[in-house]
Write a structure and sequence with these properties.
The chain is of the alpha/beta class and 306 residues long. Helices cover 54% and strands 14% of the residues. The structure holds NADP nicotinamide-adenine-dinucleotide phosphate. InterPro entries: 3-OH-isobutyrate_DH-rel_CS, 6-PGluconate_DH-like_C_sf, 6PGD_dom2, 6PGDH_NADP-bd, HIBADH-related, HIBADH-related_NP60_sf, NAD(P)-bd_dom_sf.
């Protein structure tokens, strides 16, 4: 029999993920929705149909076998689990897609296990547009049986692929998610420098684009190339706002410092994010790092359109 599922946390990510769970996941209907601000859950439920809004955290847990959370931050998760852990959680599986700290997630997973429940961490890579198109990368860790239980809801339902860490502590997924942020920021920084370099040398960004596509047949930088060369990094809908990226990059820097890792490219990318925030405001896109690199290279922040 399909499990009963609750989705808690209806920010931009949760809205898309819960809709895809309802539409594409093999779950018992209705999908239970819970959000701290109840009106958002009511509005989402009316739009989707086949949902039921829970009026408290306790009821959100009571009704379901699987409780999926996607909350803002560590504080939100700690406060919500305080309420969850005062209910009967025996046999229930908690899936957490919030980006929080590895240590806190391991501590909550232990408390859930002490209460007779199960816990899987599934932080995701990709913002709301990728969540809507079911293209998130889902990093899953926790005991193998629990990861197997939710596997059918990851690839093809809320996301397009899984980084499978089953058998490892839930915190491992959070650690890898922070490393994923390192990869993204370092790639954006490299792409921005390559294009500004090409422009200052006079060979131009179009030729750099050709070179990149030839050298890297499945280019990791294609998305950022498009953002920068189309100008969408300056005026389009942001992939991720610099204000959000600065919070996350601060945590990655703390992690690197704690372990003595040398992350110089990342430090530079973070300085460029700060530049973009000062120059363009908190809602500018992270790929506007291109503008910061251009200014340092003696070019105007925005390229003139050809
Ligand atoms: N957005 C992205 O690009 C992106 C990409 C990958 C991963 N993530 C991660 O996904 C998670 C959700 O992000 P998001 O962008 O969808 O939305 P968000 O604005 O970060 O989170 C919104 C949700 O958290 C709830 N919330 C906040 N504080 C709370 C508290 N103290 N107690 C209970 N609930 C609380 C909000 O409830 P109310 O509606 O009542 O405020 C809302 O449901 C975050 O951990 C984020 O880091 C985001």
């Amino acid at each position: 029999m399909a499990p009963r599922v609750t989705f808690m946390g209806l920010g931009p990510m949760g809205l898309a993920m819960s809709e895809n769970l309802l539409r594409y996941g093999d779950i018992e209907k209705p999908l239970v929705l819970y959000n701290r601000t109840r009106e958002k859950a009511e509005a989402h439920s009316s739009r989707l149909g086949n949902c039921q809004v829970a009026d408290s955290v306790a009821n959100a847990v009571l009704f379901s076998d699987i409780i999926w959370l996607c909350l803002q931050d560590q504080k939100a998760i700690e406060e919500t689990f305080q309420k969850i852990l005062s209910t009967d959680i025996r046999g229930k599986l908690f899936v957490d897609s919030s980006t929080t700290s590895p240590e806190m997630v391991d501590s909550i997973a232990q408390r859930v296990s002490d209460g007779g429940g199960h816990f899987v961490a599934v932080p995701v890579m990709g913002g709301p547009p990728l969540a809507i198109s079911r293209s998130l990368t889902c990093i899953a860790s926790g005991d193998s049986k629990s990861v197997d239980t939710i596997r059918p809801y990851l690839e093809g339902v809320v996301g397009s692929n899984i980084v499978d860490l089953s058998g490892e502590n839930p915190g491992a997924a959070l650690l890898l998610k922070l490393m994923g942020n390192f990869l993204i920021m370092a790639t954006i920084e490299t792409v921005a420098e390559a294009h500004a370099f090409a422009e200052t040398c006079g060979i131009g960004t179009k030729n750099m684009d050709k070179l990149m596509a030839a050298v890297f047949p499945r280019p990791p930088h294609a998305l950022y190339n498009h953002q920068m060369l189309s100008g969408e990094c300056f005026s389009g809908k942001p992939l991720v706002e610099v204000s959000k990226a600065l919070l996350l990059t601060g945590r990655v820097m703390e992690l690197a410092q704690k372990h003595g890792a040398s992350v110089k490219i990342y430090e530079i990318a973070r300085e460029h994010l700060k530049f973009v925030k000062d120059h363009e405001g908190p809602d500018a896109d992270i790929t506007a790092i291109y503008g910061a690199v251009r200014v340092e290279s003696g070019l105007p922040f925005r390229p003139s359109r050809e």
